Structure formats: structure tokens, C-alpha cells
# Entry
Amino acid sequence: MTDRSRVVRAFVVALVVGLALGFATQHLQAHLPGNWNTLANSGVVWVVFAFTVTAVLRLPPGWSAVLGFITLVGALAGYYASARFIDDVTSSASTMAVWLFAALVGGPVFGVAGSWWSAAGQVRSTGSWLSTGGSSLRYEGRFWQLRRPVVAVALLSGAFLAEGIYFLWQVENKHASGLVEVVLAVLAPMMLARTNRDRLTGLLLLFPLGLLGMAFYRLLNALLAA
# Structure
């Protein structure tokens, strides 16, 4: 059983990190030069923070899903509060509702992903990503292993790929930012996976997950335009 005081501390950390992220986003996007201000107001940067917070706090996946959501909701609160009370900029309720929906989806997904990736550093599992333990050796002889840490890294890579392609194809004068994100999408499995087999699997998963991320971007754009 997870210690209650540890959970409370984790919730506070996630909220504080989220608020600071939202505040920084609002202010950096006005000060970074050229199209690099896009990276300050990037959805992928936000989910990287949700991933990192849960990877560092190392709570079970259920709690990590909540922590990921709290991180992104805190970021939204920090962003809109900063915009309203410091910069005197207002946003419509419908726009905030769309991004709250995005936090409701992305926060738990990348919160759990961070937990999965972090857990692999504590116990080197050979079980499949659907298993709960990871002590089974049934998959040791198979080349293809959909382990949880591999899926976690691939989700992060897919988010970079989806946003990078979105910048390249849909946003004028943001091609440099998009190219950087596409490169990071390819590098992430190489840097974060722990074996060559996991790196190859992560690269293979990059494309379907990138397509899924692109579909989610199209959905958000449709909701924002409605």
C-alpha cells in the first residue's frame, strides 16, 4: 500500500510544477526569439513534464495517472491565471474547456507512461506490457516484446512526431520547430530505451503512435474551431 503522506506530497509537487509550467509558458512565448517561442507554448513540452513528474515521483500507475492530470491542470491554471491577472489577456470558456479535455486525456496517458518507464529502471522486467508483474521469463526468447517501458517511450516519441509534423504542415514559419521535434521523436527511443531490442521496437511503434497523435491534434483543432 502506498503511504498516504507520500501521495499527498506527490500531489503538491505535481500541482506546483504544473503551475510553474503554465506561468513559464505564458511569459516565455512572448520573449523567445523567432519561431522558437512555439516551443514555449507546445503541447509536447507539457506532456514531457507530466511524464517526468511521474517518472521522478515513482508512484503506482493508478496514482501516476492522477498526477499526470494534476500536472497538466496546474499548467492550465498557471497559464490562464498569468494571462488574466498579469498580462490582462482573457480566453473564452470554450477554449479552456477544449484544453481541459486535452489535459484529461494526455495527463493520465503520459503520467502512466512516466511511471512505466521509471519502474523499468528499478526492476528489469522481461514480461509483456500487459502483465502486472514482469518476473516471467516466457518472452525472453522472442524478438518482439511490447513491454511497458517500450510503450512509454514510444508514446513520448509519437507525441513529438505528431506535433513536429503539425508544425511542418499546418503552421506557417514554424518549420524549424517542427523539424527539431521530428528529430527528437527519432532520438527519444535511442536515448531512453535500455536495450537495442527496445530501441528498435520503440522506433517501429513511433509511426502508428505518431499517426494517432496527429489524429488527436486534428480533433483538438476541430473543437477549437467549432
Q: What stands out?
A: The chain has eight helices and no strands. Residues 123-144 have pLDDT under 50 and may be disordered.
